[in-house]
UniProtKB/TrEMBL annotation:
Organism of provenance: Rhodoferax lithotrophicus
Pathways involved: Amino-acid biosynthesis; L-threonine biosynthesis; L-threonine from L-aspartate: step 4/5
Domain Aminoglycoside phosphotransferase: 27-253
PANTHER family with a match to the protein in the record: AMINOGLYCOSIDE PHOSPHOTRANSFERASE DOMAIN-CONTAINING PROTEIN (PTHR21064:SF6), AMINOGLYCOSIDE PHOSPHOTRANSFERASE DOMAIN-CONTAINING PROTEIN-RELATED (PTHR21064)
Gene name per UniProt: thrB
The family this protein is said to belong to: Belongs to the pseudomonas-type ThrB family.
Record-level Gene Ontology MF annotations: kinase activity
Coiled-coil portions: none
Name of the molecule in the record: Homoserine kinase
Length: 331
């Protein structure tokens, strides 16, 4: 149950009044999620009911939040299906509720698809590409805070908890990623705001006439400026991976890359570096899961995900380098 901070109807009412969203008719704690307090709220305005999500941020501060919320607003206003944060009269997007930073966004419809097919992957791939293009006109800059410099800082912290084989894998991979980051072809990659954590559980689909229809992306709180191809690799490492074995699902990957490529054709340099970025994405999540698992932050409410899954994905990505059919298909 992800309600760590209780919000009363009258507290929600006061915020919705300030935001001119009307009268709150229902307020329900959201059972999903592990990091923040989320409430689903309905409000009536001029005879119409609208559904919202009220989030109280338990980890991020008042200072950190504007980047993420402004990015969501920018993307929503540029036609990307993401929750749009509501601003007050002064344009503020972050508010104080129970001394916690809080925001109100529109509620997306649908549910996550935890067993995605090529059709789901095609829709996510296309919207990911459109999201990258829409992000070109977003001006605020914040690096991906879970990028290379965080990996360099964090690998030494988790090393004492690893076996000899794991130590070898992670240190060799880190060295390889530092080498890649120093390449001029890497420096020239197109970049901009990326989601950086667009896993299956951060995307919702409706069902229309028995077919899935993407309703939106959410949970932008790992977003930052990084290469677009890294964002694509993070997605391929979740949407196109067999969760039991860590093996590539070539059909899903083909569909994901082909539809991304149709919206924004990949550059030759991006194709060349995709195998390296698939390894980077696997390292990033193996490392964050190891860090959460072995060094849980004090009073953390996070339930650590299984690190060994991304160790398996990394091992596969290193040994198979790439499913060449997949890349050839989007040429
Ligand atoms: N804008 C939204 N529209 C619809 N559902 C949402 C929205 N934001 C969050 N949710 C729901 O709330 C759940 C928790 O959100 P999430 O951002 O994953 O929380 P946490 O950051 O605490 O893990 C999600 O699984 C989703 O079902
Ligand atoms: N997708 C990451 C965990 C990020 O947490 P989230 O619940 O905020 O998406 C992982 O699987 O390790």
């Amino acid at each position: 149950m992800a309600v760590y901070t209780e919000v009363s109807l009258s507290e929600a009412q006061a915020l919705f009044k300030q935001l001119k969203l009307g009268h709150v008719t229902s307020l329900k704690g959201c059972a999903g999620g592990i990091e923040n307090t989320n409430y689903f709220a309905s409000a009536e305005l001029e005879g119409q009911t609208h559904d919202y999500v009220l989030t109280l941020f338990e980890r991020l501060s008042f200072e950190q939040l504007p980047f993420y919320l402004q990015l969501m607003k920018h993307l929503a206003q540029h036609g990307i299906a993401v929750p749009e944060p509501t601003a007050n009269d002064k344009g503020a997007l972050v508010f104080d509720v129970k001394s916690k930073p809080a925001a109100v966004v529109n509620k997306l419809s649908g549910a996550s698809e935890l067993a995605p097919t090529p059709e789901h992957c095609a829709q996510v791939g296309a919207m990911l590409a459109r999201m990258h293009l829409a992000g070109r006109s977003f001006e605020p800059q914040q690096p991906n805070l879970r990028g290379l410099s965080w990996w360099n800082d964090t690998v030494p912290v988790v090393l004492p908890y690893l076996t000899q084989a794991q130590k070898a894998l992670i240190t060799q991979e880190l060295a390889y990623q530092n080498h890649v980051a120093a390449l001029s072809s890497y420096a020239a990659l197109p970049r901009g705001p990326i989601h950086a954590d667009l896993f299956r559980d951060n995307v919702l689909f409706d069902t229309v006439n028995h077919a899935p229809v993407l309703s939106g992306f959410f949970d932008f709180y790992f977003a930052g400026i990084d290469t677009w191809i890294f964002d694509l690799a993070v997605c391929l490492n979740d949407w196109c991976i067999d969760l039991e074995t860590g093996k590539n699902n070539a059909q899903n990957a083909h569909s994901f890359i082909a539809s991304y490529n149709q919206e924004r054709p990949l550059l030759a340099a991006e194709r060349a570096l995709l195998p390296a970025m698939l390894r980077a994405g696997a390292l990033r999540f193996w490392l964050s899961r190891l860090w959460d698992f072995h060094l849980p932050r004090e009073a953390s409410m996070l339930q650590a995900h299984d690190p060994s899954h991304f160790e398996r994905v990394l091992t596969q990505r290193v040994s198979h380098l790439l499913d060449f059919d997949t890349l050839a298909a989007c040429a």
